Amino acid sequence: MLSWKSLACVLAASIVLIANASPAADRSIDDFTLPDFRGQQHKLSDSQDKQFVVVAFLGTECPLAKLYGPRLVKLSAEYSAKGVAFIGINSNLQDSLTELSAYARQHSIEFPLLKDLDNKVADQFGAQRTPEVFVLDRNRTIRYRGRIDDQWGIGYVKDKPQHSELKSALDELLANKDVTISKTDPIGCLIGRVRKAPASGTVTYSSHIAAIFQKRCVECHRPGEIGPFTLTSYDEAVGWASMIDEVVDQERMPPWHANPKFSHFANDRRLSDEEKSLIHAWVAGGAPAGDLALAPKTPEYPSGWQIPTPPDLVIKMRDKPFEVAATGEVRYQFFMVDPGFTEDKWVQASEVLPGNRAVVHHVLIFARGGVGGEKPETLRDGAGGGFLSGYVPGFRTKPYSPGMAKRIPAGSKLIFQVHYTPNGTKQLDLSQLGLWFADKDTITHEVKSIANAAKRLEIPPHDSNYKAEATTAALSTPALLLCLSPHMHVRGKDFRYEIKWPGQPEETLLDVPHYDFNWQTTYMLSKPLPLPVGTRIYSVAHFDNSTDNLSNPDPNKTVRWGDQTWDEMMIGYFDLAIPRADADKVSTENTNTPAQNPPAAGGPRIDGKTLLTMFDKNSDGKISREEAPDRLKDAFILLDFNRDGHLDDTELARIPSR
């Protein structure tokens, strides 16, 4: 699943098709002249021998514009011989010619890519966002305007477009037909326009806004971080002013999804009402700079690890980088590493350092297979225990309080589960884990990540409010609750944690009314919450498997538990600090799924030999991924140790019979 951390940093218009019975011949475009990034001048009339012209407004930093760059290249190649010319125009104040040149080079764009320095051409078209396309006929009248297709959007990606409006419009025009759908709402970033009137507001960047950005935004919106553009200077920020105003007004940024009515969290990212008002006033007043010499300096951030002292041990996910495709769906990747631990290790802090933040959506790391423990190859999902560390955009690493640490049992293997999001060009990633060890003699509390999961999912097609719930067994020892981390996939709708005190009314700990897969937030309590013996943690979630969910890969499918984002999960992670002497009394997979959840589909597991007999359809002595049943596909990549795309009798023998 191309899940969209970077796209979540911008707001788009809703996807509403406006199907007109007649062509959108409401505006004719006058000839214009613009320079390309090399300084060469181009005119619209240079394409006078072409029947139709596609004009695409693009931005160099907008994540959707990055994804659709290669799509436009393919369409240009397909339609150039049919009498269609393509022209790209960049009207963003904040995009330099150097950035425009890099965008053309990265996406192998050969059609003209022009710079609209004062937005006059964007104004003539009425263009608002990037990417936004316009189809002009021989009279240079607009016949279609809007999006390219519906494959990529804010927070979702589809395997392929379900509606290709630009392509359909061209095909209909080339066939001398009226355009059936002549207008759609474009989805992407607002064009950063030059301010027409002098800034007149009293709220300025230097005196008011820079400090807000540094406190709330720059952590992600700086070079090398996940934000699709930087906010470390006025020149960069002013071009995004309207976009910032929009996402703040919609409460899309900063990303925070917890209902403020319940609990207090140390990492709460919400803007205050005063901060919101200042941002709105700044934009409304023309985004004035003020005296930039008085603007606060951008704080220095670590260039590598967040923790100032170097890690005691650095573990790479593999020997060589993994190549991430430019586009399409990238399955979750699993990498197994043997750190060679011959004794238990106590970890006071851990940090996942992504090798390429542009495409790493999130990383989960599990310690499995310690002496006498679960075999590491049995990892099929995130609810099997042994969770060690993770990375999500914007997460700030902090060591545990003195006396607290996680334990990695001797003999454990480390499993990196990595979710990648393609960004339009091929990328390489070599993520790594840093560990800071504690003296075992100083540990008073062992920290355990508990997985409170409802695995028996069977979400019917078109069900918009499927309910799943789980509760832990009653605590057999006192503990401290440190944090909460809800996890679902793209059909996840909402998630709530409740605490069931012994002999007292239940209490809501965390309510996420609008779950967003793009932000795998860990909600860190401001103060550890003491839990007495007998306490239970209850989780309830809902899923939307209907067409109303734009992230839904297939609303016609019955959805069950599985690793991949087109499957589903319902996991209520939470961290407990347990007195060391009692830590073994608490299981990391401490679930007690209520009976109202339907039983898991597919029945009980059977041994590998029987599986080979049942599913080796071509009798070649192996099971291919295509031959594998759905439940086996979840674990296919981990069982396929020789990575030949098949499971042989040796690999199948690893499956325990039951």
Comma- or semicolon-separated keywords:
658 residues, 35 strands, 5-stranded mixed β-sheet, disordered N terminus, alpha+beta, 16% helix, 8-stranded mixed β-sheet
Describe the structure.
Mean pLDDT is 85; it is low at 1-25, 376-383 and 595-605. A hairpin with a 6-residue loop joins strand 28 and strand 29 (507-512). Helix 5 (205-216) packs across helix 8 and helix 7 packs antiparallel against helix 8. The chain is of the alpha+beta class. 16% of the residues lie in helices and 26% in strands. The chain is built from 12 helices and 35 strands.
Question: What secondary-structure arrangement, pairings included, does this model have?
Answer:
Elements lengths: L16 E2 L14 E3 L5 E3 L8 E6 L5 H17 L4 E7 L6 H10 L6 E3 L4 H6 L3 E2 L1 E5 L5 E5 L5 E2 L2 E2 L7 H10 L8 E2 L4 E2 L14 H12 L17 H6 L1 H9 L23 H12 L28 E4 L5 E3 L8 E5 L7 E9 L6 E9 L18 E5 L12 E5 L4 E8 L6 E3 L2 E6 L7 E9 L4 E2 L6 E6 L7 E9 L4 E9 L6 E6 L10 E9 L4 E8 L15 E2 L10 E9 L28 H8 L7 E2 L5 H4 L2 H4 L6 E2 L1 H4 L6
Parallel strand pairs: 4-5, 5-6, 20-24
Antiparallel strand pairs: 1-12, 2-3, 4-8, 7-13, 8-9, 10-11, 14-23, 15-22, 16-21, 17-20, 17-23, 18-19, 18-21, 24-33, 25-32, 26-31, 27-30, 27-33, 28-29, 28-31, 34-35
Helix pairs in contact: 5-8, 7-8
Structural class: alpha+beta
Largest beta-sheet details = 8 strands, mixed
User: Could you give the distance between the termini?
Assistant: 32 Å
Mean pLDDT: 85
Number of strands: 35
Strand order of the largest sheet: 14-23-17-20-24-33-27-30
Low-pLDDT residue spans: 1-25, 376-383, 595-605
Q: Please state the CA-atom Rg, rounded to the nearest Å.
A: 27 Å
What proportion of the residues is helical, as a percent range?
A: 10-25%
| Morphology call | globular
Q: Kindly report the oligomeric state of this protein.
A: single chain
Secondary structure tally, helices = 12
Strand content: 25-35%
